[in-house]
Amino acid sequence: MPELPEVETIRRRLDPHVVGRTIAGLAVFDARVSEQSEAELRRLLVGARIVATGRRGKWLTLDLGERLMIVHLRMTGQLLLQPDHAQKGPRWTMDLDDGRRLWFYDQRRFGTLEVIGVDAAAERFGDMGVEPLSAEFGVAALRAQLAGRSAPLKAFLLDQRRLAGVGNIYADEVLFRARLHPLRKAGGVGPREAQRLHAAIIATLELAIEHEGSSVESFVDPAGERGSFQEILNVYQRTGAPCRVCGTPIKRVVISGRGTHFCPRCQRRR
Known about the structure:
Strand order of the largest sheet: 1-6-7-5
């Protein structure tokens, strides 16, 4: 599933091309993509001007002034911006007033599209945690979230109610960088370890954005280009490969139903 770095990459690539443009048309080819009908989506979108692009966790948003268009890529969603595209089977397309078109492809068909009023945005995202690249995410805020939690650190990082946008890939990479075992209880993390974890979260996400995301499976940016962070992954999907730091084979366990990768030497369990 595209995580914070991938969605942020899409937002940054779209921004100079769509902000200030007016939505000229919309076609929905798979009604399951939205709980709103095609007619309702057209009524809410066509003629609206895109004021800004945004992101909340793993959700991409387009600010239309009084309304907010929300796109969730889920597992295999791809949002491409081209005048034409040879690939068949988009779930929806959106025309802009400059003749270009946004195409939404989604092989596994889990992605979603919705339009809400801006006054409903706080409620819509109300149960989501802090943005890890925001000013609000300090060490103190992280320690407050960790306090008293009996869940493993891996499960804590995946909990969108605690931290918005971190998924399986970056949770593994964060814990390796912080030298913390994924099965450690979140509430047992000490002050110095919390500082390491905080720094690792920010550094990992910023580096992933710099590399334009991880194209482990189907992720591409709006121009159809792949990210490159998968080329420098330390532990994720490297089971049995030597640790890049100490040479110990990377291990894999399942935590909260998710495959989890770590170095048993660099990330000793205490």
